[in-house]
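Can anyone check this?
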Amino acid sequence: MGDGVDELDIALLDALHLNPLASFEELGIVLGVSPVTAARRWRRLVSTGRAWVSSAPGLQLPMRAALFEAECQPGAALAAAGELASIPQVFSVNITTGKTNLYALVVAADQPLLAELVDEKLPAV
């Protein structure tokens, strides 16, 4: 293939799509290659931006979400965004213009944890 992805790469991606927790040993057996080859192929796909790991909440993952808005002092939004982004429950952070110039999408397992984040942890930033 002209895009640097061959049939083995596609088979690897398909196998990982079916079982994202598969080890390279398991993948090697399924694909008929060594675990080292499976790992090397995965690293190459990731390093070239052709594959990546992401997640999406499913039905088995209960969660609550909120949009947190903040008004930052001039010049402080970038630092605040960096600090917010380091909090595991913050899914995304956006800097915009206007009075409320920072937005963060936050998630938690339940309402009390979400309230603690929104009322205490995030405002402290």
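Reply from J.R.: I decoded it. The first helix runs from residue 7 to 18.
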